Amino acid sequence: MLAAIKHGDENALKGLYKEYRIPFIQWMTGTYRLSEEDAEDMFQNVVVIFYDQVSTGKLTELRSSVKTYLFGIGKNLARESMRRQQKYPEGPSELLINHVVDDSGYEDKVKFEQDLRNASRGLNLMGDPCKSILQFFYFDRQSLESICTLMQYKNAETVKVKKFKCLQRLKKLMLGEPVKEENI
Questions:
Q1: Crossing angle (nearest 10°) for helices 36-55 and 10-31
Q2: What is the pTM of this model?
Q3: Which range has the top average pLDDT, 58-67, 119-128, 139-148, 174-183?
Q4: 129 preceded by cis ω (within 30°)?
């Protein structure tokens, strides 16, 4: 399965998604008390992370089943999310960008201006489609469906996955980490 995914076999990825989606959502809602919507979002993030690991060569063989590996990623994301929510009630995925968009969370004006410059630089370095997706979603407050229509994507789920990938890249750019150019 890893080889098929690495070579771009969409059916392998779709099969993985269909096979583990419902069990994952049930596990997350039962174990971590997530809403179904949050659990589904988390599963999409897990699949994106798994795909990225396989496609970039970071994951070449599994020592466990695919299900165990996916659920392990989910467990780590859920725990990280819980830790961040205790620290920052706004939510982990929006934390960094929301502080840049809304300066009310900054006591230090210099730090805010530095983060704003870093975010702007990161957006410019990313270019489109990431720049447009993030600007539409965070600055213009457009819905995923609206962005789908504006940018002529297949559906809102496609926009959601792209937004997640773009946000991860922006975070890395803002923190000065190297970012591999990839097709988003």
A1: 140
A2: 0.50
A3: 58-67
A4: yes
Instruction: For residue 141, count CB atoms less than 10 angstroms from its CB and return exposed for 0-12, middle for 13-18, buried for 19 or more.
Output: exposed
Contacts of 179 (CB under 8 A, 6+ apart): 169, 172, 173
89-98: pLDDT as tens digits: 443 334 445 5
- For 83, the token pair is 């830790």
C-alpha 133/C-alpha 147 separation (Å) is: 7
Q: Which of 27, 10, 38 is nearest to 67 (CA)?
A: 27
Q: At what angle do helices 66-87 and 36-55 cross, to 10 degrees?
A: 120
> Length of the chain, please?
184
